[in-house]
Amino acid sequence: MTDLSDALQEPWSDLRLQREAVGLGMWFFLASEVLFFAALFCSYAVYRSFNAEAFRIAAAHTKLIYGSINTALLLTSSLTMTIALRAATARLQRMTLFFLGLTVLLGLAFLVTKGLEYYGDIEEHLIPGSTFPLKPAATEIFWALYWVMTGIHAIHLTAGIGVVIVVMLLFGREIVPVQGSTMEGVAIYWHFVDTVWIFLYPLIYLGGRT
What we know:
By secondary structure, this protein is an all-alpha fold. Helix content is 76%, strand content 0%.
């Protein structure tokens, strides 16, 4: 499946238009996701404006080392995804699969690191409830938002990893050509997930340390 015509899907007769349509469709899908995360960020901003000191105290108990490692992992995964997209455009199947594989490994490393962080948080009872150790009471609001925002992000990343693995199988078995529009849609979604983390990192980990 090396002919460009094999990459075309109905009703498109031109690969450029097909790619633009896939990109536009992905951006429409992500627009709803942006609105969802924007609501969470706005909630964080409102609560923090009324509880600045409590949020500072609460954020100081987050584990900066884990957050920093995960930031490095996701930024690197954006690079590997970009290289995979370039390789796919050049119809370099092996290189595309290699860098998609690296992207998956970096995503899995993120989830493992996040799991270790969650384990430490649970050990310290940093879950809003009767055993929550921090004062004042408004610190629980920060940690409630922490669990919700990072948990939802982890779900999105897990979905992204699953999609990349499926795409790798399709490419490897030559069911879908690497030079088609599939890679562009996958890359847009992956970069979106990475971008969300770039906003989460300073909000969650740096607020109590400035």
